[in-house]
Structure formats: C-alpha cells, structure tokens
C-alpha cells in the first residue's frame, strides 16, 4: 500500500508542478509544432519512467528492431492494465498519440498533457464521434505521428484472454497507409490490477511484432485484419508466457 501512495503522490505532484511547463509547451507549439511534439514527448517519457521506477517494474523488451524509424506506425496492443500506457510510451521511437476513452477529458492537467502529446479521445457510445476520432488519427499518421490503439475497446479483466479486436481500429493504418505493429504485453496486470489497491514489483514482457501493411495482404485477409493481428498477438502472448514464466511469477 505504501508503494501505491508514493506513486499516486508523485503523479499528483507532477501534474501540479508541471503547470508552468504545460504553458511553456503551449507557447512553443504556437511557433514550432515539431519542437513541441519532441519536448512534450521527452517530458512525459521522463514522468512515466519515474512511475515505472517507483513501482519497481522491470520491463523486458523484444522486437524493437521491427519498428520502422523513418515513418509513422499504428501500434496495436492488448490491454490488461492502467500501466500499459505508462510502460509502452517511453519505448516509442517518435511522437506518438494514444487513443484513450473520452472520460479522461474530465481529469484536469492529465487531459492537457495527453492532448499535448497527440492523444485522441474516443467516444465508444457514439458512432459518429468515434468515426471523427479515427479520421483525426488518420491525419496524424499521415503527418508522421504514430498512433497506438487497444482494439479490444476496453481493459480486459480476465487473465490470459483476448477480447475480440474491433475491425474499425485498423482503419487508421489502412487510410494513412502506415504499417501495423503488433505490441503484445505480458503480465502488466501484476503491477496493480491483480491485487488492487496494492502496487507490487513485477516483470513485464513487451514484444513488437513484424510490421504488417494492409495494402500488401490478399483481399480476404484485409477484410479480417483484426482477427489476423489478434491471432499473431495471441501466439506471441502464450509463447512469452511460457518462455518468461520464471520472471513473471
């Protein structure tokens, strides 16, 4: 419980004390958007690395060589923990926006930082607004900003399972013609969700799969791209669960 209090205190203090930086980043963006994207990315990555350190989390990263460094990508991840974003964001190779639920807009300062780092907010109950969010993601990807989405649509609370991937989640990759990078996360719920409200030390395995370009796939596979990517990630998940059982138990 002490670790949870320390982490929560750090997050609250960061959000409050970073208000001057938020203002500075907003001003920088008025004159040089690329500089703002890079500087905001660096600040948020530092904060997330601090949270990871305070949680006592070790991260094993596999397949980083699969992520292109010269173009935007669509990261597609499985989602079991609030910490999935905290652990994966410091690993991105370029400015990257995450697709989050619209309810986060209600959290002051956190929402403003997320907006600065190109995050998008999805209304899962409004099809028209959801389409607008996806189209905004397409435009960001076309401009060179990577996007990360969790196509299960919500945080999965059942261990060692995957919710069906929403096919619409992959429209960003199709319309912007950027590669899909499967991002398979093992054991992130061991940090917090498996023993709520305690935060405990854990080892998390994150593997980036080979890039997939929808345009290169046969027509039938394009129609079922969600199922295809889910199959790849399920195979990766259970392989790593077995390979790294010693570290994650």
Mean pLDDT: 92
- Which stretches are poorly predicted, pLDDT < 50 over at least 5 residues? none
Order of helices and strands: HHHEEHEHEHEHEEHHH
* Rg calculated over all Cα atoms: 18 Å
Lateral arrangement of strands in the main beta sheet: 1-7-6-2-5-3-4
Distance between the termini: 20 Å
Provide the β-strand percentage band: 5-15%
Q: How many β strands by DSSP?
A: 7
Kindly state the percentage of residues in helix: 40-55%
Count of helices?
A: 10
Given helix and strand content, the structural type is alpha/beta
Shape: globular
> What is the makeup of the main sheet?
7 strands, mixed
Please sum up the structure shown.
With 249 residues, this protein is of the alpha/beta class. It has helices at residues 2-17, 19-31, 33-55, 83-88, 110-116, 127-142, 171-176, 219-223, 225-243, 245-248; strands at 57-62, 74-77, 96-101, 120-122, 146-149, 180-186, 202-208. The protein has a seven-stranded mixed beta sheet, sandwiched between helices.
Q: Can you tell me about this structure?
A:
46% of the residues lie in helices and 15% in strands. The chain has helices spanning 2-17, 19-31, 33-55, 83-88, 110-116, 127-142, 171-176, 219-223, 225-243, 245-248; strands at residues 57-62, 74-77, 96-101, 120-122, 146-149, 180-186, 202-208. Strands 1-7-6-2-5-3-4 form a seven-stranded mixed beta sheet, with helices on both faces. It starts with a helix and ends with a helix.
